[in-house]
Structure formats: C-alpha cells, structure tokens
Amino acid sequence: MNKKGLKDINIKNKKVLVRCDFNVPIDSDGNITDDIRIVSALPTINYLLENGAAVILMSHLGRPAGEPNPKYSLLPVAKRLEQLMKKEIIFEDCDVVVDESVKNDAKKLMPGQIMLLQNTRYKKEETKNGEELAENLASLADIYVNDAFGTAHRAHSSNVGVCKFLPSSVGFLVEKEISIMGKAISNPERPLTAILGGSKVSDKINVIENLLNIADNVIIGGGMSFTFLHAMGNNVGKSLLEEDKVELAKNILAKAKEKNVSLYLPLDVVVAKEFKNDTEFYNCDVNSIPSDYMGLDIGQKTIELFSDVIKKSKTIIWNGPMGVFEMDNFAKGTNELALEISKNSQAVSIIGGGDSAAAVEKAGLADKMTHISTGGGASLEFLEGKVLPGIDAVNDK
Ligand code: AMP
User: Fold this and answer.
1) Model pTM?
2) pLDDT of 372-392, one tens digit each?
3) 73 and 202 belong to one structural domain
4) How many structural domains does the chain have?
5) Which CATH number characterizes residue 354's domain?
6) Residues annotated catalytic, as ranges
7) Which of 233, 192, 222, 146 is nearest to 344 (CA)?
8) For residue 274, how far is its CA from the centre of ligand 1 (angstroms)?
C-alpha cells in the first residue's frame, strides 16, 4: 500500500481527528442492533490512545438530509463506545457539528482523552465536500486519520475535504480492507473465484466486467442470474429479469469464453408460486421453469456444482446472496455456500459488505472467513477497479 498508515506518522502529544464509520443500525427505541462497525474501529482508537494522542472521532449516521435530527444523533454510539472502551467519551452534541464551544473543548483535550463529534451529515455541506466544513473539522486537530472504509467511495468534507488542511494517514481498518482486497485482485492465490449474486445485473455489471479480467472462475447466482439464463434461451417465468440487460448478458457470456474464464450459472433453481416464504415451492431445472413461477433460490444440483468450484479455490470473493435469503425457505443456497466457503481453510475468503456479510453473520460463520468488508458500496467499487476518493485523498508514503 502506498498510503501512509498509522505507523508512518508521529502522533505523540498530537490531536488526531479520526473519520470512523459509525453508521450502525438503530431500532425505534434507540438501541444499536449491530455494533460491528464500532468494534472494528477500536484497534485504531486504542493504538492512538496508547501512543500518546488525544482522539477526536467523527462519523455520519443515516441520512439526516443536512439538518440536525435527534433520530440520527451519535449519542447511542457515544454510549456504546463508552461501554466497549470502559472510558469516558466526551460527546459534543452540537447541531452545527463544530462551533466555538467544540473548538474550545478540542483545545483542552489531553492525550489519552476521546471526544466524539455530532453526526457530520447534520451539515448539508458534508455530502457536497464543502470546504468550510472541512476546514472547521480540520481546525480541531493536528493530524487526520481515515478509518471509514464504508464511505471511502464518496468524496465528502469529513473524508476528502479535510485532507487539504491536515497531514493524513489511513487507520488500521482501512489498511486491512485495502491490503486484503488489493492483494485478491492484483496478486491473488489461484484459482480465484468470484461469486456474485443479489438482485440486479445493473448494480454489478462493472464488477463482473472487471472480474472477468482477473478471476479464473465467476459464479453467478441470485436474482441477477435469470437475465443470463434468459439470454441463454431459457424461459424464466416470473423470475427477476432485466430485459434491457439481456444483450449485455450475452456479451458477458461471450467475453468469458474469449478470456478463458469459467462462468458458472445455476443448473436448477427453487421456484415459488409467490414472492413470500409461505407459498408453494419446488426444485426444477432451469430449462423447465413454469411461466407462472419465479426462481427464488439456487437448486440442489447448483449448490453441488458451486460448492465443488469453491472447494478447489485458493481465493474467494463473494458479493450478493444466491437467493431471497431473508425468507427461510429460500435461504438454503446462500447458507450452504457460506458453509462451504467457511470449510475451505486453505483459501483466502473475502465477503463483500451488505447482504452477503449479513448472511454470513446470521449463519454464525463470520469468524471462519478471512475478511468481511465493512463497506458494501465501497468494496463493490474497489472490486470494479475504481479509485476510491476517500483513500486517494490521504497522503502517500
Ligand atoms: P443486492 O442488494 O443487489 O446485493 O441484492 C440483495 C437482494 O437480492 C436480497 O434482498 C435478496 O433477497 C435479493 N434476491 C436474491 N435472489 C433473488 C431472487 N432470485 N429473486 C428476487 N430477489 C432476490
């Protein structure tokens, strides 16, 4: 990695402004329902504290649309951080994120102390990468650290703008994300298998195109597989189909052949009468899907085919579920593949954020994977081969 990391900067007796991704799910009673993103930030925060820095944390939470809104306050995050760190968190509940009082408190902050700013998206300039907000945030500290991989594909004041005003580095979490995923796409142990699923071809098209240049095997399942199956001449009934992407699917099939990439599609699927858990369903081959049924999961033969490819892989990148895993009757394909990946201890296994990460966690297999990305959108863009602005803005070594 050519970006400065925490070990490349001198932090002793410095005030360090850290952009974290504390965008955690919160239920209607204000309880955090999954704190993995907060836990993932601890190595960087602890390192900074142990090495003599005063730490100022910032993050966005949800979409408050540029206005203060208690529903999106970072107060629950401050409380959870306090529990996890067993240490006081000075929470700056400021409607404009930074004002004179916050600046004074930051000035007084001593090495070993932690301050948390209010939701950066309380200011509408944040998502426009407004310079005034960036300068105000930067004025609180001597150094900036970006440890928010989940927003690295966005250019906002709190991740890109601040870099103009402060020396910067990435934190341990961002470093881990880009070094593991970077190796997987630039210098992987082979065979490299990419498993892509989820609902839409249109969302994943750039990833598929890029992975065709890199992977040995590409497995396509989930809702998006039906556009490919249709392109190959199958009747897909009421399954998800993006008519305007059929030509593109044909091009991808041709390109895979040209590039000698083995592209795997379902041989059979679980078809259902209606889009709900409690409905009539059964396993059928892809060439005999009835017109009034829809495919909601991969079938048994397909699970075996995909599992076989997984078993022989040395690097596995997975993004997107194989079926409607939120419904128990259509979660089997996703769960079985998660299990198969977890059993391949020889392979580097990388789970893109979002739904595949949720499926792996739900199946209790998270600790069996090499890496679960904390950023769904950011990891997709990384796999597309794009430069992520939040990382690009950080100082080079
Ligand atoms: P994405 O956000 O594109 O990764 O898609 C994830 C969503 O795709 C999940 O909510 C799944 O329920 C949905 N999905 C996966 N397979 C299918 C399918 N065969 N039909 C409809 N939706 C699906």
Assistant:
1) 0.89
2) 998 888 998 999 989 999 999
3) no
4) 2
5) 3.40.50.1260
6) 37, 200, 354, 377
7) 192
8) 15
